Amino acid sequence: MSESEIARQIFFITKKDSTPETADAEASAGGLVERVIAGNKDAFDELYRKYSPMVHGIVLARASRDEADDIVQEVFITVFRKLHTLNDPDSFGGWIASIARRRVTDHHRSARPEDGITEDIPVKRRPVTEAREVLEIIRSLPDAYTETLILRLVEGMTGPEIAESTGLTPASVRVNLHRGMKMLREKLGTGD
Amino acid sequence: MENQDYLWDRTGRDPEIEELEDRLSVFRLGTNGPPLVPSTRPEKAGSRFSLRFAIASLSTGIAAVIVAGFVFFWVLAPDNALEDVALAREPGKVAPNPIPQAPAVVQPVIRKTLARVRTRRRPLVRDAVRVVTPKTFRRPGPEQVAALTSEEKEAYDKLMLALSVTSSSLKLVQDKVNTLGPESPEEKNIKSRSNK
User: What sign does the dihedral A103-A108-A112-A116 (CA atoms) show?
Assistant: First the structure.
């Protein structure tokens, strides 16, 4: 690496670190919410990118995959409309999680009886049947374990990410993960 | 082999969980972008509330000023304040008590309110006494009577007649009371107790 590149990297690092608090504040949920309320469209896209996996996981714990995609969109439209009613922008994660749970409940209530949960998975990707069975087993666990395991195993979020986005404490997430995983292993027949 | 750290933050390796992740990844959120939302900015929090709060505060303030004025000029003012005002308006007369002066803007409102309340108030004994107190009544002079119109003169004559009838009736009552004689010892005892 040439000296100029090293110098440029140092310069960029220095420049980036010059206002770390401002950058963190803008990237935090509260900062994003305030920017969306101020009319910043990019901030709304950032909110979607950051929280859509969590919302999808919560919805997927209660609805089929096809329904989940639509419900996620509806949740974010609701969020945009009602964002001004959020008193504490830093509690955005818990707020949007409660909206997602309520939206799934409303969706099932308004759905016709023949609209059962159906999984339409592309056949070419994986042994779908097994994946669907595993998902059904996860759904049969208690709600707290189901949501946390889906966020971890389906959406690929880590424990700290789950805690940050849902507003739960890291300790609660850790407990839910380990107890849920233990129950899942028992049901899959792979437990000790 | 089970690896608790991998389950928590993906450090290390856990083949079983990795296999589950791989298998369940087909259910992961698709590549749909965010929903299209209106370009207008969402309503700012508290804008309606601040307007309502301002209106409520203004209304409360106005009500508080009215109540305070009412309390000050009616409850705290001496009972004979109106008489003092009347005395003070007469040329050459000085009111015995200092008269609180309200701002000129609210004086008509206070005057109307006081008049209404006084007419609705339950009459007290001291008010009846005050009617016959000479200081509240000033007989007009001959030049003032001559300056009256015919209607005012007729009203004045009727008022004088009514006052003379009332005066003679009160005189009769007073004479009757005076003829009852001195108080009995028992009445004197009761009166002294009440004074104590």
Answer: positive
Lookup: tokens for B36: 């299209």
Distance CA B50, CA A53 (A): 36
- Residues B191 and B183: beta-carbon distance below 8 Å: yes
**Cα–Cα distance measured from residue A78 to residue A102, given in angstroms and rounded to the nearest whole number:** 11
Contact criterion met (CB below 8 Å) for A55 and B57:
no
Q: Which residues of A touch B8 (CB under 8 A)?
A: 158-159, 174, 177
Is the CB of B44 less than 8 angstroms away from the CB of A84? yes
* Gap between the Cα atoms of B107 and A37, Å rounded: 50
pLDDT value of position A179: 93
Each residue's pLDDT tens digit, B43-84: 554 555 567 788 888 889 999 988 887 777 666 655 555 565
| pTM (global) more than 0.80 | no
Nearest to B9 among A76, A86, A159 (CB): A159
Residue B35 to residue B19: CA distance in whole angstroms: 32
ipTM: 0.71
Cβ within 8 Å, pair B42-A125: no
